[in-house]
Design brief:
This protein is mainly alpha-helical. It folds into three domains: 71 residues, no CATH class; 37 residues, no CATH class; 47 residues, no CATH class. It is 54% helix and 2% strand. Strands 1-2 form a two-stranded parallel ribbon. The protein is rod-shaped.
Length: 188
């Protein structure tokens, strides 16, 4: 069985190692270790001293090529020479936290496109949207009025129930609902 290697450039080997195992980082090293439970690994500096960015990029490509020529299994995703990491803003945990901000899947999709796309791409969408209501259900005038009456002011209604507000406004019911609300307030 061939030896396995991950080659990466960094100015701080310990910080880079920690980054591989953080929640916000998509790492081929971490994936490899997870898939091969119990495998140990060793960190090595392949150069004795710090080098310029251009040299570091060259050496990363060079070492990947050399290890490959010598029959090593390379777990790097990329050919090497790239700067920075591939920080992933929308991991499962951050997608869940973002989704909890929304009552409707439609709003989640429109207002947080990155989180929604990541959840969909990673097949988490049904799980993290399970608390959401279906927005496209047609509400009756009575249902709209009941939602309107849950708010203290028309402004609060508009801010907290945007889609229902739009339906009420477009249907011409806003003035009527406001009168009903005022009448109910007087009788309380």
């Amino acid at each position: 069985m061939p030896m396995t290697v991950y080659v990466g450039l960094t100015y701080d080997i310990n910080k880079r190692n920690q980054q591989h195992f953080s929640d916000n980082y998509k790492s081929s090293l971490k994936e490899y270790l997870d898939e091969n439970n119990g495998v140990t690994y060793e960190l090595k500096n392949l150069l004795d001293n710090y080098v310029s960015i251009d040299e570091a990029q060259y050496y990363e490509i060079f070492f990947i090529s050399e290890y490959r020529k010598n029959g090593w299994n390379i777990i790097n995703r990329n050919k090497g020479g790239g700067l920075g990491g591939n920080e992933v803003k929308w991991n499962k945990k951050s997608c869940i936290n973002e989704a909890l901000k929304y009552e409707y899947k439609y709003d989640f999709c429109k207002k947080s496109k990155g989180a929604y796309a990541s959840a969909k791409r990673n097949n988490w969408i049904d799980e993290i949207c399970s608390h959401m209501k279906i927005k496209n259900r047609r509400l009756s005038k009575e249902e709209c009025l009941n939602i309107f009456l849950k708010h203290k002011t028309p402004k609060e209604f508009r801010e907290n129930s945007k889609s229902v507000y739009e339906k009420v406004r477009l249907s011409g019911w806003l003035e009527e609902f406001t009168k009903v609300s005022k009448e109910l307030a007087r009788t309380d």
